[in-house]
Amino acid sequence: MWLGVDYYPEQWDSGLMEADLETMIELGCNVIRIAEFAWHLMEPVEGSYDFSFFDSVIAKAKEKGLSVILGTPTAAIPAWLAKRYPEVLGEYEGGRKRAYGSRHVNCLNSPAFRRAAEGIVQAMVEHYRDEPQVIAWQVDNECGHEGSDVCYCPRCHAAFQQYLARKFCGDIDTLNETYGTAFWSQGYNSFDEIPLPTESNAAHNPALRLDWERFCSESWCEFIAFQVNLIKSIAPQAVVIHDFPGGGLEKHVDFSRAAQPLDVAAYNNYPVWGGQKEPLPPHEIAFGLDYIRGLKGQNFWITEAIMGAQGHDVIGYLPRPNQAALWSYQSLAHGCSSLLYFRYRGATKGAEQFCLGILDADNVKGRKFREVQQVFQTIAPYAQAMQAPIKSQVAMLYDFDSLAAFRVQRQSLLLDCQQEMKKLYRPFFNRNVPVDIVPHSADLSGYQILFMPLMIIARPELQEKAARFVEEGGTLVLTYRTALKDEDNNLVFGQAVPVGYTELAGVRVAESESLQEENAFPVVGQGRCAGAQGSGGIFRDLLEPAGAEVLYHYGDPFYAQYAAVTRHSWGQGTVYYLGCSLDRDTTDHLIEGILTERQIQTIPSDPGVEVAVRGEEGQQVRLYLNHNSYDAKAGNISLPPFACKLEPVEKA
User: Fold this and answer.
1) Which residue in the list 36, 142, 352, 549 is annotated as catalytic?
2) Which of 148, 206, 316, 568 is deepest in the core (most CB within 10 A)?
């Protein structure tokens, strides 16, 4: 198990290094992460490589018994590259160039950038391929972060046109037919006539816009794969990681595809950032962790855990005593198997002066130092348990194309796909039931309950997989706006909605309505839900049962004859259809019923207290986490504010 810190020795007087590394040993570190933003230091002029500084850092780390995660520095290009090849700079919509002086300012499709990136990565790996202290390579930094997932420069425009030419095998007539370019006289005679979907006086073609989303994603996925393949070609045994940022479901990058060539997915976990009045709710932090675990269906590393307040220009909330440590324990509860803190010492110069670290600029070992030290001392004995996989009985699927389709056409001003997923996730979190957040391509074997929220793109292979899951005894939950469009983001002609699921779900959508309120109408329980009342909003499908049992119907005038929530038996399993975004209590009641129906064990605890078990036979540990600012309990376990208790699980 790797326990460590992110260290930027190039930002400090070299005379501090000896004491710094000694302090890291005192903390309980066995690894440091270095070099991810040091391109200029290693290549001060084009083609002239100098690794002497990091040679000395690695030599000193070896002397202290510290291993190294080495980052490729391609996220922050040197000034000479931008000056000599100004075309490497990306462009905002409208042709405005990104200014040099920040990170992620480059265009991934710039040939000059790619040549330079290949040069520095190849030189680094050739230099360090036989260095035993380097236990992993990190490629780039936080893909898609800070707007780097889109670029509108001429090189990206040309690359997009080439992408479409490949997709349609050079046949412009097929593209015209697929996109329906007869609409608004948009027929193209050649691929070089196709525009970027930049600002215009009305909306661009939805099929074109979805392909643009796919192109943006492919640019990042291909760039990560390029670096992984380059590293492996020189050092075949190298372990390669990438540190993903938060908010992956909202990015123009499919993180699950980007993670495929990696050995390990890593995550930079920021429960609070500059300007936030308070941290994310605990279930939202947990959701992000489960999402990262689902990228490869395996445990992950945390490469940036926070300890101090964070922010570039606006400083954020200061984690309360033990609260940042609690977030570290929470990451371990959700599949983190190695943990590093950002950063060892807060910077005194540069854009991240207010991204505070374990040590502040005064260089004094204070409360934050002691908290990290305590975390490392507490979890180190349970390294075996933390390496074991998490086995969930519940999965929530997402689809990059469906999420992108909602970015293209939001359909309701209040619709936030990620928030709707978290709304469905929360009842499981509150009952301490683990959930896997996985891409639509994931293997479904081993799950009992499967959620497929907002899957607006109808995929035949997913329909077949979902039907097989239900036939074999699984419980499937579909939501409003399911299977409305084909894979080109066009509505499906001549088929009832949800396309491909009507027989399985025992229901068809008669009509739909977009609402601009969260509690826009009442829903009224009937049958097994008789007597229950709630509300719904954001969007709704007016459901006509075709064999399904009605659990709730709409309670407002004109639409009371339509179902709002249905349940349908199919094969050995069951399908639920949620026709609208339901209020919290109704959602909670429905999910409680599904858990009871499936006889899935829950763990009672006070609100805000999380309980998780890590490990397998040989070593198991139970974690009790109090996310509250007051005393709370899980069973007989009492916990002070923001406390975590680790307890070995006794063998039966």
Assistant:
1) 142
2) 148
